[in-house]
Amino acid sequence: MTSTPASAPAPAALAVVVPAHDEQHRIGTCLHSLRRAAARTAPVPVLIVVAADACTDATAAVAADAGAEVVEIDARNVGAARAAGADHAMERLAGAGERPAEPEERLREAWARPAAGRPAVGRFAEPWERLAEPWARPAAGQGVWLAMTDADTTVPEDWLIHQMAWARRGYDAVLGTIRLAPARTGSLVVARHDADYFRTRPLTGRATAWEHPHVHGANMGLRAAAYRRVGGFAALPTGEDRDLVGRLVASGHRVARTDQHPVRTAARLRGRAPGGLADLLMTLRPPVWERPATTRHASRTGAGVGSAPVSPLTSVSPSASVTGEEA
């Protein structure tokens, strides 16, 4: 952030896009956290879209049961999944502030017939007539804000509120940080992570002012208009988030970097994207002969290994933070 942009209106609508590949055991927890975050944005509506990519399990069904709109593709590609989810969200929210002259009937129509009969997450108890009302009179220029996270990630309750605040401050995109959730990786792996991840963080002063170097598809947001201008997510199997941000920066868009609203992501050793977080964690594991006996036994049998509680400052190292991890 080299300069502070002028203030701007709050978004007229929010969309959260979650790519998912065989995440039936994690997607429910992710969506629960998103519903809690969506409840804080009223009266601004929130649409949650899960892009189920080449799933062979019940990911799509679990997501639909949780109230998300589901887009199913067969690409096995995180960039393609994020792009499909974003395209669906922008199509569903067409006219929300982007085109204020849109007839009221068309704006109401999109909300009167939600996909598969399911409402936008975070508004379950609202009649569709009341949901449609804010869309009939969007303020000119407000538009749609796209928030991105992963299916193995949970967000804090104020996650979307913080993103809206960055939008009101005139930024085109905001890049957040992550923390590792408790897992079987072990405290040594977490400690090695943190040493690298936080090496540029000031030791004194406000932690939220840290303009970190990381890019996470699990914690980012951007204006739909800016997303369109740079061509959206490329169909990359990894690094799709870094690629998109590179184009935003190169084209002069205003990008904020903050540690103010970190998300919590799974520290698993078998991930979904090649070269992602899981691969990095594997490189940080000590050799087998240096591990405690219980750890060596678990690695042979596949049993879980208990680990010490993670520090509140656990996260991904810079080398992993610039790669997209398909949820």
| Poorly predicted segments | 98-141, 280-284, 288-327
- Largest sheet descriptor: 7 strands, mixed
Shape: globular
Rg, please? 20 Å
Provide mean pLDDT, rounded.
75
Kindly state the number of beta strands.
Answer: 10
Strand order of the largest sheet: 3-2-1-4-8-6-9
How large is the share of residues in beta strands?
5-15%
If helices are DSSP runs of H or I spanning 4 or more residues, what is the number of helices?
12
Helix content: 25-40%
How far is it from the N-terminal to the C-terminal residue, by CA? 28 Å
SSE string, helices as H and strands as E: EHEHEHHHEEHEEHEHHEEHHH
Question: Could you say which structural class the secondary elements and strand pairing correspond to?
Answer: alpha/beta
Write the layout of secondary structure elements.
Elements: E1 13-20, H1 27-38, E2 46-53, H2 59-65, E3 69-73, H3 78-92, H4 104-112, H5 128-136, E4 144-148, E5 153-154, H6 159-168, E6 173-175, E7 178-181, H7 187-197, E8 220-223, H8 224-229, H9 240-250, E9 255-257, E10 263-266, H10 277-284, H11 293-301, H12 318-321
Parallel strand pairs: 1-2, 1-4, 2-3, 6-9, 7-10
Antiparallel strand pairs: 4-8, 5-10, 6-8
Helix pairs in contact: 4-5
What report would you give on this structure?
This protein has 327 residues and is of the alpha/beta class. Helices cover 34% and strands 14% of the residues. The strands form 2 sheets. It has a 7-stranded mixed β-sheet with strand order 3-2-1-4-8-6-9, sandwiched between helices. Helix 4 runs antiparallel to helix 5. The C terminus is likely disordered.
